Amino acid sequence: MADDDAVFKALADPTRRALLDSLHQRNGQTLGELCEPLHMARQSATQHLDVLESANLIATVRRGREKLHYLNPVPIWSIQERWIEKFERSRLRALSDVKRLAETREEDIMRDHRPNYVYVTYIASSAERVWDALTDAELSAAYWGHSNVSDWHVGSTWEHRRVDGSNVADVVGTVLASDRPRRLTLTFDAPEQTPPDGPSQVTFDIEPYHDIVRLTVTHEYLAGQAALDAISAGWPAVCANLKSLLETGHVLPQAPWEMHADLRATQMAHNDAQRSAAAR
User: Where are the domains of the chain?
Assistant: First the structure.
C-alpha cells in the first residue's frame, strides 16, 4: 500500500501530471525540454520530478552531461490491476488520467522515429554481482536461457548463445561501453538482421545504494512495433529471473518468458530461417 500511496500522491498534483503527459507524448526528454512548454523554473521542475522518480513513475538515464527522463508505466499498471476490477465503470472516471497514462501506443514512445524502451528494477545485491550476472557466460545461462559470451572490451563482439548444445547465437553485437561495474552498452540485433537505420542499442546502468542496486535497462533505436512488443515482454522476464537468482540463489520456478512462448518461438524460428538463407 505504501507504494500505491506514493503513486497517488505524485499523480494528485496537476503539474506532475503535465510532466507525465509530456513524457507520454515524447519519451526521453531533458530537464530543459520538460520545462520549456510549461514555462516552469528548473528548480520547481526538479522538485516535481524528484517526487515522480520516488514513486517510480519515471526513470532517469545519464547521457554524458544530459539527464534523460523516461516514463515508467509499471506502477500505473500495478494500480490498474489492484483497483479497476473493484469498481463499476462509472466510478473509474476519477482514474481517467491513470488509465490514459497506462495505454501505450507506438507513436507515444517514438523518439527520432524509432521506439525506445526503459525498464527499472531494484535488486538486493552488489553492483559487482549484477555486472557478473550480465557478463558471465555460466551465470547468464542460469537465468536467461542463453549465455552472454565476450571479453567485454570496448570494440569487441559479443554473442547471446543458446544453451541447448547448438551454441547458436540468437543475438550478436559490439561492446560500445564497458565500465565495470556501473555501465555496459551493446549493440543488440539478430545475426544478419541489422535494420537499415542501424542496430538497436542496449545500456545496462547499475547504481548501488547501500545494500541494493538499481538496474536500468535502456533499449534504444528499435526497428519498429514488432521489436518493441518482443522486448517489452522479454526484458521484464529476464530481469525478474536475474533478481530471483541474485536474491535467493534460485531462478523462478518457471521460466517467465514461457508466458510469451509464442513471441520467443517466432523470433527463434525467424533467426533460424535467416541463418539458413544466409548459408545457401
Answer: 2-103, 114-279
For residue 156, the Cα-to-chain-centroid distance in whole angstroms is 24
Distances (CA, A) of 136 to 107, 186, 219, 273: 36, 15, 20, 28
Alpha carbons within 13 angstroms on the beta-carbon side of residue 197 total 11
Taking the C-alpha atoms of residue 173 and residue 156, their distance in angstroms, rounded to an integer, is 9
**CATH fold label, 114-279:** Alpha-D-Glucose-1,6-Bisphosphate; Chain A, domain 4 (3.30.530)
pTM above 0.70, yes or no: no
Which residue is associated with the grid cell 473493484?
A: 86
**Crossing angle (nearest 10°) for helices 137-144 and 127-135:** 80
**Rounded Cα gap, residues 73 and 24, in angstroms:** 10
Under CATH, what is the fold of the domain 2-103?
A: Arc Repressor Mutant, subunit A (1.10.10)
- Taking only the tens place, the pLDDT of each residue in 102-147 is 654 444 444 455 678 999 999 999 999 999 999 999 999 999 999 9
Query: Residue 185 is inside which H or E element, if any?
Result: strand 183-187
